[in-house]
Structure formats: structure tokens, C-alpha cells
Amino acid sequence: MPKPTGGSQFHVTLEREASAKSENVEDSHRVELEEENYQHVMNPDDPDESYNHPIRFVRNPRLSREARGEPPEYELGRETELEEEEPVRFRQPRQEEEQEPANPPEEPPEDPQNTPFLDVAVNFILDYWKMISLGLLALLILGLVIFLIVFFVTLKPAGHATVAPNSTTSTVTGSTVTTVTKPTAVTIPTVSTTTTTTTVTQAPTTTTKTTTATTAVTSLPTTTTTLSPAPTPTADPNSICTDGYTLFYNKCLKVITQPATQASAYEICSKTGASLVVIKSGGENREIGEFLKLQGLRKIWIGLQCNENDKSSCLWDFGQGDLTSYSNFVTGSPNIGYGRCVFYLYNESLPDAGQWGNGNCDVDQLSYLCEVPPTINDYCDFNYNKHCYTRIDYGFTFTDAQDACQRICSNLISIHSELENRFVTSMFNITGYLMLGGVAPAKDLVMWIDGTPRDYNNLKLFIADQNCMYMNYITGDWSSVDCASAAWPVCKRKAGARC
């Protein structure tokens, strides 16, 4: 029987399959290619006729994907949808997901009403911390400047104190004196309805006693001497005026022709212990008219102010009384609708020569008269109201200052009116404190060592157990201090007196 056409190719194919199986196709990574082979078969209808029958060989499905190697050329153009999808967990992120949008959408601004207050405060501090820091620094510097000003204004003048030789020990530092002595009692006579004496702890010395009731006042132990009042001098009855004032009807007057408001005139007169003129009788009212006639003046300010449209509301400056004794208002006055201050209008045709009317204290400008009490002729630097005042520019303790004053027939100063208090401040043109000649067991109780009445008190600052008193040169205010502290004293005596 003749061999079929193409039989050799068929056998070759069978041998190739057997060889692939034996050589472990999975390890050789070989992939069978799809190809067509032809087999020579006999025509069943015609045994003498034969033809080549195509045989298609396909891939072996048993081979793994990894073992098949590179795909055949005819599969390279197949669509990617035939590929199997990878599991989700191995899927690579898309490029579009990795890249952030170039211009992300802007978030809407937060509503300020819903923003917490703490966040707003913190953001404000972070934004403006430089300005806040500068503001706090400025406040700190301002506080420091105010403190320094107050400290130096109220600083007491430094001085050295002399301690009596009877003291056991003594330490002097600046204006403070510390001593250790055996205290003894000394009495200070005072004026009241009954005779009263006050016992003050001082250094060993002679003790003066009285048989009447006494009030004991104990101060800090200090080295002192006996505080006895100076001898009462005999005064000269001849009255005079000083410092450019003119004696007229038992008044010392100074005319100021330069017009000024009543408030300004009040300040100018009071700086030297004077006041605007005070009129207490018809005779004084006529004498003031005559004085103005000589000066060529007709209208001046006087030291009277009214708070209502009634005479009972009118008072003379510096507590010098009211109008119970005399007044001479024009008809329809006082009338504070024109002002609270009062002026004097000279009219020689009137019986009393002058009448009073109301004016505006801060607007109307008039001439004015300053008045001081008359004094007695004496050779002293400061002569006021029949007394001589001596200024000692050296620091003394309370008892040493009294000793120094007694050597010139004087006592430490006592003050009995606001005008006198202003006169004493006019004696100094520096800042500091001067020593007063009194003790203050309480804020409302001031006793003078010269025995004069307790009719005026300007004690603004009282400290318990600190019974001596200082006066501020500038303000005229008094304060209680330790008697061992040092300050400049002012001595006072009757004018014309001789020891």
C-alpha cells in the first residue's frame, strides 16, 4: 500500500510531541506554535484517489503561563482586553489619582461669629505681638518714671543729727538716727479748758511736773533734752507793714493794678501768706474806698465768694468768717447768675463809698488788693503777723532742733492758720521737708511745744508711733515721722521780743 502523501510530516509532528513531553516542556519555556500540517488520506469513495487533509495543532493547555515564554508573532497584535485583570490588591494606582490637582478648590472662609474667642485672641497676639510688647514696655517705663518722681518729690532732705553726750550708743546714717538711752519723762504744757500736760519719753534730764491732770504720750526712745517753752517776750506795740505793703486802717495792703481773674488773684496773693482784701465793717468799707480813690481805681476783686443767691452762703477766703457782722451788696445781689466771686465798686456819692456785686471768677479780669496782717518792727529775715521766723539750713533731730531754736530765744515753729502755713512755704524755693515744733499723738490731735492753742491742723499723713511732724515745702502738707529723723528746722518768736 503506498504511503500517504504528507505522511512523513505527520510522523515528524508526532515525534516532536513525544520529544516535548519527555524533555519536560514546563522547564524549557517552549511554546508550541499553532501551525497547519497536512495528512495524506485516502478518499473513501475512490480508493485510488488520495488528497492532503490539513491538520491544525494548537497549544497544549496543560502548559503553565510562565512556561510558555514569548508569545508567537501572530499573537502580538491581539487586544489587551484578553489579558486577565490583576487582583485589586496588586493593582497599581492610576497616575491621575497620584497627582494632586494643580488648583485645589478654595474652602469657604470660616464664619467669624462661629470662631472661638480663644482662637481669635491667640491669632491676634501672634499677628501683633511686636506692638503688644512695645505697649507693655512703654507702660512699664511710664510706671517707673512715675515712681521715681513720687520718690524724689517726697524724699526728705538728708542731714546729720547731733546726739546728746548722755546717750549710751548712737549711730547716724543720712537722715536717720538710732540711739539707745534710758528714757525719762518730760511734760509739755498745753492749752485747753483745764490745764493739761503731756508726757513724752526723752533722754535723762530735768523733769518738769504740774499738779493738774496729765495725758501720757510715749514716743520711740530717743536722746533728747527738756522741751520747755521759751520765755514770753514783751512785744513792741508799734505796728508796721513789710514787703511793699502799705498800712491803711490797721491793714497792710498792696494794690495790683494788672487785671486778672479772681482765681489768679487768689493764687498770687496767697503765695506770700496774703489774701484778697477782707471787709468786716462799714468803717473798713469806707477806708477801702478812700484807698482806691488814692490809687485811681474804682473796681477791684475782694476775697468773698457766694454759693447761692443768699448772704448766708457767702464766705471770706481762708476761713476768715462770714457776713454776719457786715455786708454791702447792691440791690438784687448776691446773684450767682453773674458769678460766684464778689467785686468792690467804688462810688463816692454813696454813704459807704462802695458796694459789692457778683462777677465770673474765671472770666472777668479786674485789679485787686492783697492783704496781710500788720506786724512789729524787728530785725529778722522773715517778719509776719508780729512774729519773726528764722530758717536753719541744716538737718537736726527734733530735740536738737528745739535746742538750737532756744539758743536764739525762739521755739520750733507752730502754725495757726492756712495763711501762716502758706507764708512758711514761701520761705523756701526748694523741695524737701521742714520740722514743725509739735507732736501728734493722733491725727486729729496736734500739740505745740510753745504752749500755743491747737487752732489749726493740716496733718495729712499720720503713722502710729511716729509722733513728730514735718511739713512739705511745696504743698504745705504735714505728716508724722519718727522723732529721730533729721530735717531743717524753722524757729519762731514774738517780733520785738528780747530774751
Continuous helix count: 9
**Structural class by helix and strand composition:** alpha+beta
Instruction: Work out the number of β strands.
Output: 26
Say what the CATH topology of the largest domain is: Mannose-Binding Protein A, Chain A
- The value of Rg in angstroms is 59 Å
Mean pLDDT, as a whole number? Answer: 72
Biased composition (Basic and acidic residues): 13-32, 63-80, 87-96
Biased composition (Polar residues): 1-11
Protein name: C-type lectin domain-containing protein
Pfam family, one: Lectin_C
Layout of SSEs?
Elements: H1 7-22, H2 25-28, E1 35-42, E2 50-57, H3 95-98, H4 117-127, H5 129-153, E3 169-173, E4 176-180, E5 184-190, E6 196-202, E7 214-216, E8 239-240, E9 246-248, E10 251-260, H6 262-270, E11 275-276, H7 282-295, E12 299-306, E13 314-316, E14 341-346, E15 354-359, E16 366-372, E17 375-376, E18 382-384, E19 387-391, H8 398-406, E20 411-412, H9 418-425, E21 433-442, E22 445-448, E23 459-461, E24 468-472, E25 478-481, E26 488-494
Parallel strand pairs: 6-7, 12-16, 21-26, 23-25
Antiparallel strand pairs: 1-2, 3-4, 5-6, 8-17, 9-10, 10-16, 11-16, 12-13, 12-14, 14-15, 18-19, 19-26, 20-26, 21-22, 21-24, 24-25
3D structure, described in words:
This is C-type lectin domain-containing protein. InterPro entries: C-type_lectin-like, C-type_lectin-like/link_sf, CTDL_fold, Snaclec. Keywords: Disulfide bond, Membrane, Transmembrane, Transmembrane helix. It comes from Caenorhabditis remanei (Caenorhabditis vulgaris). Residues 13-32, 63-80, 87-96 have a biased composition (Basic and acidic residues). With 499 residues, the protein is an alpha+beta fold. The protein has 3 domains: 7-80, no CATH class; 169-235 and 376-494, Mannose-Binding Protein A, subunit A (Mannose-Binding Protein A, Chain A, Roll), CATH 3.10.100; 242-373, Mannose-Binding Protein A, subunit A (Mannose-Binding Protein A, Chain A, Roll), CATH 3.10.100. The protein contains 9 helices and 26 strands. It has helices at 7-22, 25-28, 95-98, 117-127, 129-153, 262-270, 282-295, 398-406, 418-425, and strands at residues 35-42, 50-57, 169-173, 176-180, 184-190, 196-202, 214-216, 239-240, 246-248, 251-260, 275-276, 299-306, 314-316, 341-346, 354-359, 366-372, 375-376, 382-384, 387-391, 411-412, 433-442, 445-448, 459-461, 468-472, 478-481, 488-494. Strands 18, 19, 20, 21, 22, 23, 24, 25 and 26 form a 9-stranded mixed beta sheet that branches. Strands 9, 10, 11, 12, 13, 14, 15 and 16 form an 8-stranded mixed beta sheet that branches. A hairpin with a 2-residue loop joins strand 3 (169-173) and strand 4. It is flat, with a radius of gyration of 59 Å.
